[in-house]
Design brief:
By secondary structure, the protein is of the alpha+beta class. It has 3 domains: 2-104, no CATH class; 115-265, Reverse transcriptase/Diguanylate cyclase domain (Alpha-Beta Plaits, 2-Layer Sandwich); 276-351, Beta Barrel (Thrombin, subunit H). Helix content is 42%, strand content 21%. It has helices at residues 2-6, 11-25, 29-38, 44-65, 71-82, 94-104, 115-132, 146-153, 155-172, 196-213, 241-257, 358-361, and strands at 136-144, 178-183, 186-192, 226-234, 263-265, 276-277, 284-288, 294-301, 305-309, 319-326, 329-340, 344-349. A hairpin with a 2-residue loop joins strand 10 and strand 11 (329-340). The longest helix is centred in the N-terminal third of the chain and has 22 residues, at 44-65. The two termini are 28 Å apart. The relative contact order is 0.09.
Length: 373
């Protein structure tokens, strides 16, 4: 849209710029430009050839008139009078066209992108991720117990709740992220160049924002509202856009099943909970029997257990207690030693560790920036 609005590039310069963007972004830039200019749908190679012809015609008309007619005028003349591809072209101001195009891909209630835009954007991002080896994650969110709000208070209040959540989601994401209303009370966020723990971090941020936003009466009514979510990462969890959606949806279903108001990472390992490598500066304190606690370095961590590094052989066995500390928060969990090695100790927890503990302790690829005010 910006290239077309500026119209400051000559024919060869425009084509060269479109080819450069295609290499960088991995998208059909010539097809997109032609669609914006004429609403014709052509494959990328045919669209590029037609744009070359349009610019050649633009030069010929300019030589005859003694001035540059511009690409839009040259396109209307060439496609109508020379090629006959347009029969009754309509003249529309570019800003008005942009508004119309935006409304076609925007959910009017929440102000987020709609499902149509989501499908297109996810397809583009998976292809870009595959081409350049970049990270990509998908976060699916579903409002908990939303149906009773509609049933008890009517659809008007339900719509206001959805609009409020949409606003919270817009505040939480980065400019590069694609936040959408997936359908009904479901939302989705496409997270380019983001690993699974970065996506989990965003999911937790949104979950807490929603929880806090509805702690006070909303529209004069006490409403209990929370959100559950699932995270899947490309291509580890799914090698196509469809598989990625299915895996994120499966993780979201598990979040609902485990009690709602939580974010769950999809995992396909046989063990119940996925295991993550731990930050090099992470430390835990292990207490066995009457000991005051021994500082150890965790090697990996899951919700069900931990593998700890020891400085030498250890005879610790039976029931132990682990304390994990990060910033001002502290988690204490009891468990049993299931394996003692020369330089490692494996502990199985008696109860699952909260997933929010992972944000500070495990390594992640790319984390979303802090929410904008």
């Amino acid at each position: 849209m910006a290239l077309l609005a500026a119209d400051h590039l000559d024919g060869s310069g425009l084509i060269q710029r479109l080819r450069q963007l295609r290499r960088l972004e991995g998208v059909a830039t010539c097809s997109a430009m032609l669609h914006l200019l004429t609403h014709l749908e052509l494959p990328e190679d045919e669209a590029e050839q037609l744009l070359v012809e349009l610019n050649s015609h633009r030069s010929e008309v300019g030589a005859t008139l003694g001035r540059d007619p511009g690409l839009p005028v040259a396109a209307v003349d060439y496609l109508s009078n020379v090629r006959g591809l347009l029969r009754n072209p309509t003249i529309v101001e570019l800003d008005e066209l942009e508004t119309t195009e935006r409304s076609a891909v925007t959910d009017s209630l929440t102000g987020l992108h709609n499902r149509r835009y989501f499908d297109s954007a996810l397809d583009i991002e998976t292809r870009r991720s595959m081409r350049y080896g970049l990270g990509l994650s998908l976060l699916l969110l579903d409002l908990d117990l939303f149906k009773p709000i509609n049933d008890l208070h009517g659809h008007r209040l339900g719509d206001l709740v959805l609009a409020r959540v949409g606003g919270l989601l817009r505040r939480a994401v980065r400019d590069a992220d694609v936040a959408c209303r997936f359908g009904g009370e479901e939302f989705a966020v496409i997270l380019p160049e983001t690993g699974r723990l970065g996506a989990f971090s965003l999911g937790e941020r949104v979950r807490l924002l929603v929880q806090k936003a509805f702690e006070e009466p909303f529209e004069g009514l006490a409403i209990e509202l929370s959100v559950s979510g699932g995270v899947a990462t490309f291509p580890r969890d799914g090698e196509t856009a469809e598989m990625l959606v299915e895996r994120a949806d499966r993780a979201m279903y598990l979040a609902k099943k485990e009690g709602r108001n939580r974010i769950v990472l999809y995992h396909s390992e046989r063990r119940r909970f996925v295991r993550f490598p731990v930050r090099s500066n992470a430390r835990v304190w292990l207490r066995a029997g009457g000991s005051s606690g021994i500082e150890m370095r965790p090697i990996n961590l899951s919700r069900s257990g931990a593998l700890l590094s020891t400085t030498g052989p250890t005879r610790t066995e039976g029931t132990v207690e682990l304390k994990l500390r990060m910033r001002e928060r502290e988690w204490v969990v009891s468990g049993k030693v299931v394996r003692s090695g020369r330089r490692s100790l494996a502990v199985r927890f008696d109860r699952p560790l909260p997933e929010d503990c992972f944000e500070g302790h495990v390594r992640r690829s790319v984390a979303p920036r802090a929410a904008r005010s």
